[in-house]
Write a structure and sequence with these properties.
The protein is of the alpha+beta class. It has two helices and seven strands; from the N terminus they run αβββββαββ. A hairpin with a 2-residue loop joins strand 4 (45-49) and strand 5 (52-55). The chain is globular and about 50 Å long.
Length: 99
C-alpha cells in the first residue's frame, strides 16, 4: 500500500506529546479520535489503515514530506523502537546486493 502525504494529512496530526507521535485528525473518515496507533510487544508503534498494518514511523516519515528509498528501512537513532519522533528517525540500508 502506498499512501500519499495528502492522504495522511487528512487522517493524522503529528504530535510529539502523543505516545505514538500521531493523533487522529478531527473529522477523519474512520471517526477515530485521540492517539493514533498502539505498540507491539517489541515497542514498535503501528496502526491498521485500509485493512493493513502500517508502521507509525513510516507514516511520520511521509507526513514530513520524505520518501523511503528502495532497499532502505527506518531506524531510530537512539535505538528506542518506540521513539518515532521525526528527529530520531533515519534511513538505514536494509540489504545490499554483491557486485
Amino acid at each position: 500500500m502506498k499512501l500519499t502525504k495528502k492522504e495522511l494529512d487528512e487522517l493524522f496530526i503529528y504530535d510529539e506529546t502523543s505516545s505514538t507521535c500521531l493523533r487522529w485528525r478531527d473529522g477523519n473518515e474512520y471517526g477515530a479520535t485521540g492517539v493514533a496507533g498502539t505498540h507491539d510487544k517489541f515497542g514498535n508503534p503501528f496502526l491498521f489503515i485500509y485493512g493493513e498494518r502500517v508502521s507509525v514511523a513510516l507514516i511520520v516519515w511521509v507526513l514530513h514530506g520524505r520518501v523511503l528509498h528502495h532497499q532502505k528501512a527506518l531506524a531510530p537513532r537512539d535505538g528506542n523502537l518506540a521513539n518515532v519522533c521525526i528527529g530520531n528517525l533515519h534511513e538505514v540500508v536494509l540489504y545490499q546486493t554483491p557486485l
